[in-house]
Amino acid sequence: MTATDTEIQPRAKGLTRRQKRRLSRGAQYVVFVAAVVAFAVTADWGRLKNQFAQWDIARQMFPDVITLALKNTVLYTVSGFVVGLALGMIVALMRLSSVGPYRWLAGIYIEIFRGLPALLIFIFIGVALPLAFPGTEIVGGTYGKVALALGLVAAAYMAETIRAGIQAVPKGQMEAARSLGFSPARAMVSIIIPQAFRIILPPLTNELVLLFKDSSLVLFLGVTLEERELSKYGRDLASTTANSTPILVAGLCYLLITIPLGFVVRRMEAKAQEAVK
């Protein structure tokens, strides 16, 4: 037996990398199944059903939970997204500007509104702004305040996303547009920004999902019964009925929106990867 055969023989007795991966994956599945079984066996399903699954209470929530709470949630989210997108575009262009003060202002805005919790922004809009400017009314009432608060938060994130998308467009696109007689502004609007949005559409959709959940902070602005969104609506009914079923139903209504949006994001990301290949 040669020295080479001696070196190879011990390796043949051990597990290969593929076998190790299979063994590790199998162990993870076993742990997961064991955890699920342990939860199913030890949980008190009777108490959970009494507290979260009272179907007579759930039935009383319809159709208001859809026609009122879910509708308001969607309106708050869409209006905040529109304001955030418009403001984010402006901040992104300021961030890319050759004028120093524009870049500094955009950078300060992004750092402040990305660093502050959304809750503080809502309190600022609902409390500090009326104190600073007495008698000033935001157009749209509560809907306008929510759109402004959500828009200020979303714009800081969208601005960086849009900036990254613009910078991802090859510089040759701008040079080609300029050679055809386009001004820098027209080339940016007609050539660069449309290509950038095709790149950043998935992360912008993710931002829409986050705004959908952040709309629950509207309660800090003080809303009427007709202005309640899902979380506020669920909490009010939970307090009235002394049961948590309304909160569960409200959570399921959130999933009616977020799960399809998540699917759309994954489809867009897959198409983007296919286009790159």
UniProtKB/TrEMBL annotation:
Reply yes or no: does the keyword RNA-binding apply: no
One GO biological process term is: amino acid transport
Where would you find this protein in the cell? Cell membrane
Q: Which InterPro entries match?
A: AA_ABC_transptr_permease_3TM, ArtM/GltK/GlnP/TcyL/YhdX-like, MetI-like, MetI-like_sf
Gene3D superfamilies reported in the protein's UniProt record: MetI-like
Recorded topology in the membrane: Multi-pass membrane protein
Sorted alphabetically, the keyword list is:
Amino-acid transport, Cell membrane, Membrane, Transmembrane, Transmembrane helix, Transport
GO CC terms for this protein? Answer: ATP-binding cassette (ABC) transporter complex
Question: Domain named ABC transmembrane type-1: which ranges?
Answer: 70-265
Q: How far does the signal peptide extend, from start to end residue?
A: none
Q: Which Pfam family is one of those matched by this entry?
A: BPD_transp_1
* UniProt GO molecular function: transmembrane transporter activity
- Listed transmembrane segments: 27-46, 74-96, 108-132, 138-159, 180-201, 247-265
Q: Does the keyword Membrane apply?
A: yes
Family named by the database record: Belongs to the binding-protein-dependent transport system permease family. HisMQ subfamily.
According to UniProt, the name of this protein is Amino acid ABC transporter permease
According to the entry, what is the taxonomic lineage of the organism?
Answer: Bacteria, Bacillati, Actinomycetota, Actinomycetes, Kitasatosporales
